Amino acid sequence: MRRVIILILLLGLMQLIALAAPFGGAGRTILVFGFLILAAYSAGELAENFHLPKIVGYLVAGVVFGPHATSVVRPSEALDLQPVGDLAIALIAFIAGAELDLAELRRRGVSLLKVTGTELAVTFVAIFTALVLMRPWIPFLAGYNWIVVSAFAGLFASVAIVHSPAVTIALLTETKAQGPVARTTLGVVLVADVAVVLLFSVALSVARALVPSGAKGVGSLGATAWEIGGAFPVGLLIGLAIVIYLRLTTSDLFLFAILATFFGLEVARLMHTEPLLTLLVAGFIAKNFSRHGSGVLLREAMERSAAPVFVIFFALAGSKIELPDLARLWPLVLPIALVRAGAIRFGTRLGARWARLSAAESRPLWMGLISQAGVAIGLVTVASASYPAAGGEMRTLLLTLIAMNETVGAVLFRRALLKAGEVGGEGAGGMEEAALQAASPRSQAV
Amino acid sequence: MSSALLLVVLVAVAYVAAKLAFQWIGRHLLIVSGAEYLLLGILLGPQVSGLMTPQALRTFIPFMTLALGWMGAMVGMRLYLPGLVRLRGVFYRLAFVQSLATLVVVSGASLLVLQWLFGVTPGYALMPALVLGAIGTSSASDAVQLIVQRLGRRSVVVRQIEVAVGMDSLIAIATLTAVFCLNHVGTPQLARTPTAVEWFVISCAVGVTGGALFHLFLGEERHPDRLFISLAGAIIFVTGAASFLQLSPLLPGLLMGAILANTSRNRQQIEAVLHSVERPLYFVLLLCGGALWSPGGSGAWFIPVLVFLVARMLSKVYVARLAARFNDMTGVLGPNWGRALIGQGGLALAIAFNYLIESNSYFPDIIFTAAVVSVLLTDLASARLMQKVVTTSPYEIRASGEQQKPVIPQAEAAEREPAPVGGDG
Q1: What torsion do the CA atoms of A291, A295, A297, A303 make, to the nearest 10 degrees?
Q2: Closest CA to A257 of A307, A296, A289, A302
Q3: Does A32 sit within 8 Å of B240, measured CB to CB?
Q4: Substitution target from B3, B201, B236 for chain A, most A beta carbons within 10 A
Q5: How many angstroms separate the CA atoms of B15 and B36, rounded?
Q6: DSSP A66
Q7: Shortest Cα–Cα distance, A301 to chain B (Å)
Q8: Most buried one in B245, B256, B372, B421, CB count within 10 A?
Q9: Burial class (CB in 10 A: 0-12, 13-18, 19+), A365
Q10: How many Cβ atoms are within 10 Å of B326's Cβ, its own excluded?
Q11: Can you point out the beta strands (E) in B275-367?
Q12: d(CA B333, CA B324)
């Protein structure tokens, strides 16, 4: 409560400063940046009191102080703070890659592929079918022939099946969760991240073939293939460069972590490869091929620098949620979101059975796959740029769906981790350790 | 391979090579690390590779401005009053005299050379001369820490150097704030434009209000991650407030840090959190400083830079010697203790950067070049100079359970509190 009162005082102080300020230059962006960190941080603490993930608090703070509510953060300032968002995405991708263990991947790779493949296929078909059935009420499908409906529904579904590595990593960092559910969810999200970019490219190419867009500057299929395929060799090279650096020195890792992420992002942009995938591969190589645990040290340095970045990243994401659209479109979005959630649940169960995962591991898995954030927003932008006329409506609908899933998904994933008893490292591993300790002669003696 | 990508690869290789080379040189030749980042910045910047365009650099300015507030808070955190009052007045007297004299000498010399070289009026040359004076006054404590660690002992002269570095920081920051207030563009929305004194008061008020509010906001928080986020938010807020008012964020940051240091129960945790980011921020300043560097339009830029370097060095060495002589401290500190103050670091660069981004500044490129050259040169020599001063000083500070070497009364009475006063890192 004390912090909320101080935030109100700070808001008053901002108004007072605005009176005496000569010009609205870069200074206001920094002022707003500081306020947003404090506000989002306090909202995160408040959310924790209500047994909600902190991310939800950050998002709510973004919505409340964003351009569509109180306008403390103006659209131009949100744009000025975009480099923080870019850095956050890159950091998330690198950390996600570094979380993957080569040995575990060898052991469980096939299982992950089975679960992911089934879940994505089922969800894609379900959303596609739902859109086709709901076409009279959907603005960009109503009144069109079957070819256009199929093309746009396919494109929409290919974005709607995307998960959020950002929310997954942020929640795993926040809860310090360790255990089979946490690891399987992360594995599925990361494998799905690669697959959905591929699937989206195919859906976009099919849509373009069926419904010529007329938009300029849209890449070819070859370019899209390079964007995904090229990310592997480019990420590999960046990762190897980091491994060599870590063999030579491990000083100033905090700064090196940010510099490496920044350079990785720039290299991916210059090589026209998918930045998230490139950094994910780089993180994987850096963690698994460096000596004497220096890769782990780098990952820890990245996690340290990511903590405040997460706060601002999700607060900015919240500020972009368009409340008027949410209010207008929720009757359309809600059934789609429900179909999506149901399909994810069914798909993961089916996949888990095929992969022979234990019930304890597979049952809460779907709850970790609901969230959507950065990657989905990126794909929405590409889709709407490809179809300037119909894309606008599709963009609004998808962004509203993403906003809903972003908030609900974080809550569900936290609940899944709590249910599995994996929060704060109290997962299966922790329980096994506790059981072993209890069985040891020393503990029995005590 | 595209030329842009080739440049990225080249710069990355140059960074690794410079980093490793400086690491080796630093280990063998006693050099304070940092210059490699400045060189990398110059390589990245528009003057060499052009990889970071002026437009791209402008997007980084808000983040570099944050480093100023952080640096101010770091200086402020060291102003812990219970520690300060345990030291004898002679330490402060010596530090104050050498700081003020350096400010006067460097500002005076710069005023004359700018007037002569560019044919401007004294009124026009005064502001840049004062900023050069502020940059010249500041000194760094990096080398002190390095030498104390290396020798494994502290002496009276080390204490004096720490006090002097703190005093230098205070005077340099106050001077820069005064320049910003005198040079302020005014506020059209207000019925009356505030005077320079009123802007100075506003500058202090931002820091004091921020300090008081964030003392309450941080409360008893001790968890490093939570403390880091709220402290970062607090410093960013205060920095943004000062920057939005077109004032220097250094003084508000300093005041906020001083209030937190003197009122918080979790002072050590706050200091640890601030310290954990101090060095990376210094390197970011060096990196972006290098990228922003430009010799400016005038070909004669090296003359004021040279005058600045010579005036500063002479002033630091000889005024310190005179001050020690007049206070009967030459025997304790040695005649050349001022040499230990020649090293420059983050604060010098921060002041120059702050002036560079000020909208109505005169000769910003020359001033920035002076700071960059000074940091680059003194990084190479400061640790050696410091080692010479410290090893020739005979008076060690008593460690617990050890006998102190015989000292003269001034030095003996001065040794009561081992806490350093300040420095810019």
Answers
A1: -170
A2: A302
A3: yes
A4: B236
A5: 7
A6: S
A7: 12
A8: B256
A9: buried
A10: 12
A11: none
A12: 7
* ipTM tops 0.90: no
Longest CA pairwise span in chain A (Å): 78
Q: What angle do CA B346, B349, B354 make, to 5 degrees?
A: 120
Which residue bears the tokens 């069109």? A144
- Residue B392 near residue B334, CB atoms below 8 Å: yes
Distance in angstroms (rounded) separating the CA atoms of residues B290 and B38: 5
Q: Which of A166, A152, A79 is nearest to A375 (CA)?
A: A166
Interface of B with A in 36-55 (CB under 8 A): none
pLDDT at res. B93: 92
- Tokens of residue A107, six digits: 């052991």
The segments of chain A whose pLDDT lies below 70 read 22-26, 213-222, 224, 251-252, 304-305, 374-375, 378, 381, 424-446
Picking from B244, B357, B360 by the largest number of A CB atoms within 10 A of its own CB, the best residue to mutate is B244
Residue B219 CA, chain-centre distance (Å), reads 29
Query: Is B2's Cβ below 8 Å from some Cβ in A?
Result: yes
The Cα–Cα gap between B303 and A329 comes to: 67
Interchain contact, A9 vs B213, CB within 8 Å: yes
Token pair in block for residue A29 = 């962006």
d(CA B6, CA A367): 44
Q: Which residues contact B232 (CB under 8 A, 6 or more apart)?
A: A37, A308
In this structure, the number of other CB atoms found within 10 A of the CB of residue A218 comes to 15
Q: What distance in Å separates the CA atoms of residue B66 and residue B58, rounded to the nearest whole number?
A: 14
Measured CA to CA, the distance from residue B125 to residue B118 in angstroms comes to 9
The structure tokens listed for B192 are 């009356």
Residue type, B114: L
Q: For chain A, what is the radius of gyration of the CA atoms?
A: 22
Pair A282, A94: CB distance under 8 Å? yes
d(CA A302, CA A244): 18
